[in-house]
Design brief:
Blueprint (H helix, E strand, L loop, with lengths): L1 H7 L4 H18 L1 H13 L4 H4 L2 H10 L1 H6 L10 E4 L1 H9 L4 E4 L6 H13 L5 E5 L5 H11 L4 E5 L2 H12 L3 E4 L10 E6 L2 E6 L1 H9 L2 E9 L6 E7 L13 H25 L21 H9 L1
Helix pairs in contact: 2-5, 10-13
Length: about 300
């Protein structure tokens, strides 16, 4: 499997995208549940199917481009494969010196957000640490971990050690990257509205900002047609997070946590509405979380030690 993956990485990006588009439609027609979920989620978001429909092929292209994205030589610059709009928002946030939290939903090529950031901003004193969930298969776990680690780009596993790693990075004035529309394990999130329907939403993003005072910037990686690469669109949060609470009772803390998650969900909705044809509408966003021991409260203590 590794050999096949490496071989696919040598194909032109345009070819991988053609193959991926076909695979996207094949998956759409082969899986009634996946097809139904795409339509239901787009309808819930009040996105006409004509605007969401391109996401069928784009979801396949996202998978097909991974060999190129992950196996690209570390010394090979992206060059004209990456373009930017709104890069000044990143520069302004980094200049504050309090660390930067980059948020992006499951849209376009979120893998390229990290690589694009690292090449433009991460080679100096502002490297990025991106949170990731280790693959379950052994051959893929090693490949994914090594491929995502590049100059200016490190990774942190989605566990207690990874959270501590991210807090330390922010306190050094560095950058971390999160996908806040990913369903977290049980006890690591709250139920907050996402396109009007309750979705289990991570609390990690808001807690990191509360603990470190980091700035927040939204970046979405739009996949360009014809294998031309990607355009990274950076912008500030449409609205600020609610003021942090301290010394409050449990009910007030819970209210703050839900309010923060709701603001972040609205920011993700804002980004998705700008590029509905590249959002993963088939992602099981409203599923119940898997059981797992909480890592956030214990980490807050450990990181301050």
């Amino acid at each position: 499997m590794t050999t096949l993956f490496r071989g696919a990485s040598r194909l032109p990006l345009s070819v991988l995208h053609v193959v991926g588009g076909a695979l996207g439609w094949l998956t759409y027609w082969a899986s009634p549940s996946y097809r139904r979920r795409m339509h239901e989620h787009a309808l819930l978001a009040d996105i006409p199917w004509a605007q969401a429909r391109p996401a069928v092929a784009e979801s396949g292209r996202m998978i097909a481009e991974l060999p190129w994205v992950w196996s690209r030589p570390v010394d090979q610059p992206l060059g004209d494969k990456i373009r930017w709009t709104g890069a000044e928002h990143v520069e302004r946030a980094l200049a504050l010196g309090k660390g930067l939290l980059v948020l992006t939903p499951h849209i376009g090529s979120f893998e390229m957000v990290g690589q694009g950031y690292a090449e433009r901003f991460g080679l100096g004193k502002h490297p990025m640490t991106a949170l990731y969930r280790p693959a379950r298969k052994a051959w893929m776990k090693e490949m994914v971990s090594s491929s995502r680690q590049r100059p200016g780009l490190d990774v942190a596993p989605a566990n207690l050690a990874g959270v501590r790693q991210m807090i330390r990075a922010l306190r050094r004035g560095e950058t971390i990257g999160l996908l806040p529309d990913q369903v977290p394990p049980e006890s690591q999130g709250v139920w907050a509205p996402f396109f009007g329907k309750p979705a289990y939403t991570m609390t990690l993003a808001a807690r990191l900002v509360q603990q470190t005072g980091a700035a927040v910037v939204l970046i979405r990686g739009e996949r360009l047609k014809g294998g031309r690469g990607w355009c990274l669109h950076a912008e500030p949060m449409p609205e600020p997070l609610p003021p942090a609470v301290s010394g409050a009772n449990a009910a007030e803390v819970e209210a703050y946590t839900v309010a923060s998650a709701t603001v972040i969900n609205r920011a993700m909705e804002h980004m998705i509405r700008q590029l509905p044809g590249q959002y993963l509408w088939g992602y099981h966003r409203y599923k119940h979380p898997r059981p797992q021991e909480s890592m956030l409260d214990s980490d807050a203590k450990g990181a301050q030690a």
